[in-house]
Amino acid sequence: MSLTTHDATATVTVQLRYFAAAAEAAGAPSEEVTLPVGATAEDLLGAIGAERPELRRVLDISSLLVDGVVREDRSLPLQTAGTPTALRVDVLPPFAGG
Questions:
Q1: Structural domain includes residue 49
Q2: Which of 36, 73, 77, 96 is the 20 to 30 Å CA partner of 88?
Q3: Which InterPro entries does the protein's record reference (predicted)?
Q4: The domain that contains 39 carries what CATH number?
Q5: What pLDDT does 86 receive?
Q6: Within 10 A of 78 (CB to CB), how many other CB atoms are there?
Q7: Is residue 6 a part of any domain in this protein?
Q8: Please, are residues 19 and 91 in contact by the beta-carbon 8 Å criterion?
Q9: Cα-flanking dihedrals φ and ψ of residue 30, to 5°?
């Protein structure tokens, strides 16, 4: 799946890794998505869940780790100043136990 802007140089590549129910709903353990620079976590979730309602349901209740850091505010850009143009986002659905 790929979303791009008109300016191909203004993109960020996101390597998504799905765990547990998220991997099941996605039908794969990972995927790569290209988004415009400045895209938020919500933009990412909207892009990958737009045509997969079951995955979107799981995404809405999952925790996100952006390059290993919990992202609670999904309205913030995925990238911060000085971050690379490739990011890793882990999707961790809630689980029992722990």
A1: yes
A2: 96
A3: Beta-grasp_dom_sf, Mopterin_synth/thiamin_S_b
A4: 3.10.20.30
A5: 80
A6: 23
A7: no
A8: yes
A9: -160, 165
